[in-house]
């Protein structure tokens, strides 16, 4: 398959009841798991590599592995850096053929917009795409208290888009990374309002793990076009690895371990893809 951009893969989904899954990968087993799940479901997906993970795994090693796997896949797959803050590094990633998320959400609005715009100009000159973020998602990780005051407002989302021309926009609507304290409390009405105001600009749900299926469906119908999953795959990987580490005799051959954890990632990714495709996975 020729490599696709973030913009192309999201534009190709015109079904309001479906959403494109974006899965964080960390090594070869995650790459295999996600690609095999996407191929078996005949569904395009996005592979994301967190900036810190990519700095550890290197652009010319983990980055190239993800890009090669995407190009060899039987379905369209986009590859992007997730939560990047190092603009010089992100420019290297764009040069290497990845799309990027520039995360300036911890900065004051004007600074976030200016720095995101710089990344957008650099990316668009090279035919690549940028996801930006407006709203404060990270500081909600300790619970839902005071969620309202950190939500992305419609005005902020529109002004941020107008100032940056980002291809894709991550918003804060009660979502948090990792596991939720109690049930996820997602403000679906806010998604609807932002989606209506932004029109065709795709909006993104970060912190997509541990959200009940019905809330996922309502969020998608309200306008979420990209749904990010990291933690649910990491749990599948770690739990399977723990079981293997308790086996006796200890399986020391890497090929006794790697395909097993890759399969666990694949099964969890497949489950999410089916939900994102609107299938009955209850
Ligand atoms: P989770 O770890 O909650 O799935 O969040 C993933 C994410 O948003 C990555 O950017």
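-> sequence recovered:
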């Amino acid at each position: 398959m020729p490599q696709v951009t973030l913009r192309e893969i999201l534009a190709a989904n015109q079904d309001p009841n479906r959403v494109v899954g974006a899965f964080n990968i960390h090594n070869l087993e995650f790459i295999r798991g996600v690609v095999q799940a996407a191929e078996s479901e005949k569904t395009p997906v996005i592979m994301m590599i967190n900036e810190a993970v990519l700095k550890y795994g290197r652009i010319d090693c983990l980055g190239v592995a993800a890009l090669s796997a995407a190009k060899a896949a039987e379905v369209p797959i986009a590859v992007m850096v997730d939560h990047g803050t190092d603009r010089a590094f992100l420019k290297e990633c764009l040069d290497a053929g990845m799309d990027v998320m520039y995360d300036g959400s911890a900065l004051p609005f004007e600074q976030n917009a200016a720095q995101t715009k710089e990344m957008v100009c650099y990316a668009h000159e090279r035919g690549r795409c940028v996801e930006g973020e407006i709203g404060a998602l990270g500081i909600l990780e300790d619970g839902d208290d005071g969620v309202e005051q950190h939500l992305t407002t419609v005005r902020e989302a529109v002004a941020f888009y107008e100032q940056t021309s980002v291809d894709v926009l991550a918003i804060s609507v009660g979502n948090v990374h990792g596991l939720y304290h109690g049930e996820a409390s997602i403000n679906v009405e806010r998604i609807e309002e932002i989606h209506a105001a932004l029109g065709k600009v795709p909006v993104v749900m970060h912190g997509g793990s541990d959200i009940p299926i019905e809330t996922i469906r309502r969020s998608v119908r309200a306008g979420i076009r990209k749904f990010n999953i990291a933690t649910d795959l990491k749990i599948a990987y770690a739990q399977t690895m723990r079981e293997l580490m308790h086996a006796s005799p200890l399986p020391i051959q890497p090929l006794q371990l790697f395909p097993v954890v890759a399969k666990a990632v694949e099964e969890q990714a497949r489950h999410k893809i089916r939900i994102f495709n609107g299938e009955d996975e209850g």
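Confidence is low (pLDDT under 50) at residues 139-149.
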